[in-house]
Amino acid sequence: MKFVRVGIVGAGQLGRMLALAGYPLGLRCLFLDRGADTPGAQVAPTLIGDLEDPKLLAELAAGSDVVTFDWENISGRALEPLESVAEIRPPRPALEVAQDRITEKALFSRLKIPVAEHAAIGTKQELTAATRKIGLPGVLKTRRLGYDGKGQFVLKDMSHIDAAWDAIGGAGLIYEKFQAFSRELSIVGARSADGKTVFYPLSANVHGGGILRYSVAPFANAQLERSARLYLKRVMNALAYVGVLAIEFFVVRGRLVANEMAPRVHNSGHWTIEGCVVSQFENHLRAICDLPLGSTRALGHTAMINFLGKMPDRDRLMAIEGLAFHDYGKQARPGRKLGHCTILKAGAREPDLALSHALKVIEWE
Ligand SMILES: Nc1ncnc2c1ncn2[C@@H]1O[C@H](COP(=O)(O)OP(=O)(O)OP(=O)(O)O)[C@@H](O)[C@H]1O
Ligand SMILES: [Mg+2]
Predict the structure, then answer these.
(1) Which burial class, exposed, middle or buried, applies to 72 when counting CB atoms under 10 A from its CB (0-12, 13-18, 19+)?
(2) Residues 242, 222, 287: CA angle, nearest 5 degrees
(3) What ligand 1 atom has the least distance to the C-alpha of 176?
(4) Closest CA to 33 of 72, 71, 79
(5) CA dist., res. 258 & res. 186, Å (int)
(6) Which end of the chain is more exposed for a tag (fewer CB within 10 A), N or C?
(7) What is the pLDDT of residue 364?
(8) pLDDT per residue over 61-74, tens digit each?
(9) pLDDT for res 76
């Protein structure tokens, strides 16, 4: 095996699930993160310190054949020196594009992937002008470092401009036209260094307050699935991508509008652990370690529910037939992703019933 030692920048739940998927393959993961008790540090060795600390990044790369990411916002400047020491996968330009909502949308547009009408915003005057040109309602977002709906403000009319500016105003914003979507869907796929690609079935995602609450997959719609695969493949090929990549879409009047991409494993792909022959975590590792990509075939119908802010009653939940329970080992805090469960069923309507059953047990804080 060419690559055995995997360095992972960030040791959150995504890193933890990567490390867990790596054990059966004989891979050894090493994390870099700030704390000694992160979800990843509980399952694999960890270098402790700042994620952009040049010395620690160099140490991580020196101890790894390939370096990958649980957190994709490492600056290109911090990553560049590592490229001569270990393979960086996904490659640095892919991370850099995805770090900025403007460059990300520019790439989508260049690849003829529809996006919401938008404008880069640096001043309050530019915001006022954009609301006139693009219209209301709209969403003001930070271009960088947003996650779980943080750094966002929905503007319904002109009177909201001051409040939006007070909340997140400053340089480096984007104003997007609000999308009256019928659904949110996402696609997860993987690409190997020799250009092979695999795609998981679509997942239908329900958010609350900007945070993913639950997903149902596979979402069966042949036409939307074809478009989503085509778009994801275009992005992966354009970036000479290696690893798992996800794109989130809005469905607007029956067509896909790309919202954003994640150059890593994605929350809406957690269902693949129990729901597919090979999970997104294993396929990410297979891709970055030059192993053959695994089958993305769904084994049945799933619902995946996030535990947000507070852990649910384990005994009641784990008594549900077909339910798999995941605890990330984190301290509870409002809005924090603490774990998830996946319900795998054979029939298309069964997960819906199990979902409504499980949703009676789960409270989000
Ligand atoms: N232009 C828009 N129109 C309508 N809804 C939107 C728009 N932008 C964002 N949203 C809603 O807010 C959610 C979070 O937005 P987005 O994905 O851009 O942010 P994020 O903070 O990066 O989220 P995450 O990291 O959880 O995916 C979306 O899934 C959607 O429900
Ligand atoms: Mg999102």
Answers:
(1) buried
(2) 15
(3) 1
(4) 71
(5) 9
(6) N
(7) 95
(8) 999 999 999 999 99
(9) 94
* Beta bridge partner(s), residue 175: 119, 140
Distance, in Å, from the CA atom of 28 to the CA atom of 137, rounded to the nearest integer, reads 48
Look up the pTM and report it.
0.97
What is the distance between the alpha carbons of residues 261 and 88, in angstroms, rounded to a whole number?
19
Ligand 2 is an ion; residues with CB less than 5 A from it = 248
Q: How far apart are CA 260 and CA 249, in angstroms?
A: 7
Nearest C-alpha to atom 30 of ligand 1 is from which residue?
210
- Tokens encoding 40: 């990843």
Which residue, among 31, 29, 27, 28, has the nearest Cα to 9 in the 3D structure?
31
φ/ψ region of 25 (left if φ > 0, alpha if ψ in -120 to 50, else beta) reads alpha
| Ligand 1 interacting residues, C-beta cut-off 6 A | 116, 139, 146-150, 176, 178-179, 184, 207, 210-212, 248, 259-260
Q: Taking a C-beta distance cutoff of 8 angstroms, is the pair 131, 158 a contact? A: yes
Q: What are phi and psi of 21, to 5 degrees?
A: -75, -20
* C-alpha triplet 223, 269, 21: angle, nearest 5°: 135
Q: Give the number of residues written for the chain.
A: 365
CA distances from 148 to 211, 212, 266 (A): 5, 7, 12
The amino acid occupying position 249 is: F
The two most distant CA atoms of the chain are separated, in Å, by 61
**Residue 125 φ/ψ, nearest 5 degrees:** -65, -40
- DSSP per position, 68-91: EESS----HHHHGGGGGTSEESS-
How many helices (H) and strands (E) the chain has is answered by 12, 18
- Identify residue 161 by its one-letter amino acid code: I
* Band (149; pLDDT cuts 50, 70, 90): confident
CA-closest candidate to residue 102, choices 206, 208, 176: 176
Tokens for 163, please give them: 């409040």
